[in-house]
Amino acid sequence: MSFKLSILGSNAAVPAHSRNMTAQLLNMREHHFLIDCAEGTQHQFQRFGFKFQKINHIFISHLHGDHIFGLPGLLLSMSLNNRKEKLQIFGPLGIKTYLDTCFSISQSHLSFEIIFHETDPQKSSIIFENNDLTVRSFPLLHRIPTQGFLFKEKTQPRKMLKEKIGEYGIPFHDITKIKDGEDWMSPDGSLIKNNALTSDPVAPKSYAYCSDTAYFDQIIPFVATADLLYHEATFTHDLLGQAIVSGHSTAIQAAEIAKNAGVKKLLIGHFSSRYANPQCLLNEAKTIFPNTELAIDGQVYSVD
Amino acid sequence: MSFKLSILGSNAAVPAHSRNMTAQLLNMREHHFLIDCAEGTQHQFQRFGFKFQKINHIFISHLHGDHIFGLPGLLLSMSLNNRKEKLQIFGPLGIKTYLDTCFSISQSHLSFEIIFHETDPQKSSIIFENNDLTVRSFPLLHRIPTQGFLFKEKTQPRKMLKEKIGEYGIPFHDITKIKDGEDWMSPDGSLIKNNALTSDPVAPKSYAYCSDTAYFDQIIPFVATADLLYHEATFTHDLLGQAIVSGHSTAIQAAEIAKNAGVKKLLIGHFSSRYANPQCLLNEAKTIFPNTELAIDGQVYSVD
Questions:
Q1: Per-residue pLDDT, A304
Q2: Which residues of A are catalytic?
Q3: Among A125, B57, B248, B294, fewest CB within 10 Å belongs to which?
Q4: What is the DSSP letter of A273?
Q5: Where are the beta strands (DSSP E) in A10-86?
Q6: A20/chain B closest Cα distance in angstroms
Q7: Closest residue of chain B to A66, computed from CA coordinates
Q8: Positive or negative CA dihedral for A241, A246, A247, A248?
Q9: pLDDT of residue A202
Q10: Interface mutation target, options B76, B81, B106, chain A, most CBs of A under 10 Å
Q11: Pair A169, A184: CB distance under 8 Å
Q12: DSSP tag of A13
């Protein structure tokens, strides 16, 4: 099952040190989600050879410029590629007015339809669901209304042991029920227990995204036990005061969230431009939560 | 006298082949003008080591996304640099609504004031003037209202021949009049002709900018005899039909404008992404107007 996160930008506020501002591409069970879209995101797609053609859903955490100013250009480029599929955009109230204004002022007519789902970042809710996964929004603590996202796979059916189909002569129309966990009655009347016919499915995985936030322990129930948590870490902990004032976190704080939420792995990003090399942020986070990695532009993180 | 044009983007519509979309930085007598501002323009400033701190005037030719979508991010970056000077923006009606919406939606508060001068691109007028130069807008022929700009130095005072000041004992308070072209009466009553006291000033120079336009010979009177003409050349001439439909020019057409307007030098840009190497466009233009150069991202063109 695919579960890959590609980093399109890891810097805060402005481009610096070959790092762009925030955008991420998540491939989860072959659904391709774009998360935030800073200015220059379409350039990053080109730079790293990532494709934006398969994106059908875009999730916006908040309306600060370094998370949305790349949207109009990316959508126009999709249109110049003659995209026809509808595109769904989930974002705080205002995202529609923003894009409508950009396109009406520039007299641009897209080749495809956008379906907007405007959210209230102060509330948590399931904002997207399909057969394979759900996406839940939850409040973060920033200077303007901001939401995180939990992308969570659904439990898959049990795996049919193929050799048992022949061994017992199980008819095709019974297989769905067996995958759903039922025992099977053979034509001669003997009951075969389900666990003799199936194996456990792959455990559902989850990705939690916390873009811009001060330390906020109310997010812990939402991100608990995630396979991968992305949490911003704008500052080293000596700049805690600055983090508090600006509604951001230190690397220590990101790691404390990861530790207390019992996640499997932490990815930190949204680095202040003052850090030409964000290694100091990684070192700091690892003192609290060893399984931490840096988000690096162009790097792809697989979760197995 | 400084007269330098720096190319920040030479591609049409989307980034391609390491070329960004249109933006230019003009330094004319130490006034720094930004002309158009595609998405990624602030990245280009970084990439090429150009500075945006001295820009006090921005000129926008039209409201298509590939000419304006970099403005909000650049202005926010100026604000993060704690800019205090007022910034003047000249552009078609709508540019203020666009920027106001971007900043209100993203709840951004700039550290400096913007003074908007909204124009009607269908009319030609002097839209800016200071002691050193004027900027005239004039209509281009594109799919939406679009204007070109003529940046023209004013004639400078004549140059005082310094050795004549001592030779004749000319008092300081007479020098301004002499520079303005007057003859000088010495205390003994003899008249000294102005051309014995001064030399000609440097001839005023001009830069004409024609961003997106179909072939349009009505621009010729405006750009006539310019020292440097930038004219878009999106297509080679075999794609003339496509140029006409899309409101763009071929390289041949750009060169015909240059030739008929008697400009000193032609710079072509706004290349279609189909040309990985725009040399074919240059070759074509040179058959009509030999003194043509390609606009190349990051290159600085001096006019002496």
A1: 81
A2: 66
A3: A125
A4: T
A5: 23-28, 31-37, 55-59
A6: 9
A7: B73
A8: negative
A9: 87
A10: B106
A11: no
A12: S
Residue in A14, A42, A65 closest to B106 by CB = A65
Task: Reduce the DSSP state of residue B129 to 3 states and report it.
Answer: strand
Query: Which residues of chain B lie closer than 8 angstroms to A64, CB-CB?
Result: 106-108
Asked if residue A1 has pLDDT above 90, the reply is no
**Which residue does chain A place closest to B146, by CA atoms?**
A106
Residues in chain B within 8 Å Cβ distance of A20: 43
Single-letter code of the amino acid located at A134? T
What percentage of chain A exceeds 70 in pLDDT? 100
A264: Cα within 13 Å, side-chain hemisphere: 9
* Assigned token pair, A182: 């039922």
Whether A101 and B101 lie within 8 Å, measured CB to CB: yes
Please give the Cα distance from B215 to B262 (Å, whole number).
16
ipTM > 0.90 for the complex: yes
Contacts of A106 in chain B (CB under 8 A): 63-65, 68-69, 98
* Cβ contacts of B65 on chain A, cutoff 8 Å: 72-73, 76, 102, 106, 108
Give the residue extent of every domain in chain B: 3-156+202-302, 161-198
Q: Judge: A39–B70 Cβ closer than 8 Å, yes or no.
A: yes
Q: Of the residues B66, B212, B227, B297, which is catalytic? A: B66
Note whether A13 contacts B80, CB cutoff 8 Å.
yes
Give the separation between CA B218 and CA A234, rounded to whole angstroms: 54
Element (H, E) at B175: helix B175-179
Q: What are phi and psi of A2, to 5 degrees?
A: -70, 140
Q: What is the pLDDT of residues B234-283, one digit of tens each?
A: 999 999 999 999 999 999 999 999 999 999 999 999 999 999 999 999 99
Tokens of A267: 């990815």
Q: Would you call B14 and A80 a contact, using CB atoms and an 8 Å cutoff?
A: yes
DSSP state of B143: S
Q: Nearest C-alpha of chain A: how many angstroms from B249?
A: 19
φ, ψ for residue B181, nearest 5 deg: 110, 0
CB contact under 8 A, A46 and B15: yes
| Cα separation of the two ends of chain B | 8
Rounded Cα distance, B139 and A11, in Å:
41
Residue B287 vs residues B236, B251, B254, B255, B284: alpha-carbon distances, Å: 12, 10, 11, 8, 6
**In the 3-class helix/strand/coil scheme, how is B240-299 assigned residue by residue?**
HHHHHHHCCCEHHHHHHHHHHHCCCCEEEECECCCCCCCHHHHHHHHCCCCCEEECCCCC
Give the model confidence (pLDDT) of A177-221 as tens digits: 999 999 999 999 999 999 999 999 988 999 999 999 999 999 999
C-alpha A290/C-alpha A115 separation (Å) is: 41
